[in-house]
Specification:
84% helix, globular
Length: 225
Amino acid sequence: MHSKKSHSKKMILHATVIMAFVGILSFALEHYGEGHLSALTAWIEASGNFAPFLFMVINVIGMVLVIPQTLFTVVAGVLFGAVKGTVMCLVSMAVGSSLSFLLGRFVLRGRVFKRFRNDPNFMKMEMLSRKHPLKVLALSRIVPVVPYSVANYLWAATGVRFLPFLIMSVVCLIPETVFMTAGGHLLSSGVRMGTVNWKMLAVLAAAAVLIAILVRAVRRSLDQE
């Protein structure tokens, strides 16, 4: 149980560090870069579907190349807003996870298994996925023991089927994605307009509570069985 709590703390610390980094960068661009953040968001609004499409393509490529997704998710909230940013990130995660899983299953499975076969996290994933695949998938997505993009390849090396993997990978990421994009949107509105978006703050708090509830529910179910 102690290790599980430490993973939760690491996830919160990681998200806080990413948000702080994006916030400082956004502040520097806006206040020391002659309003570059406002100019960038104005260009995005005027570009139609080009900017969102380009962002999602970069996000998918980053996922396949095992680049951490937290930064992309926060930036999506900064540039596109919480609602649009959430949708874009979930679509990107669905496509990127699918590509990574298929590459891991049919092209890189031998290499992945050879590299991680003695890793304790992978051994637990493989063992538990035989008995409780949906629950373990849910927990690994809600509280990632390993980074999301790395886990895509690890799950491909187990016996988990593609469709359950894809569904759980996207559905279980909704609360965290809403949390991160809402945080990014709060940073953006605070930096550019000097105001607090109370609706987004409420969404941020609600997403955090939902994540905590889901984590406890899935862990309790696994512990009982």
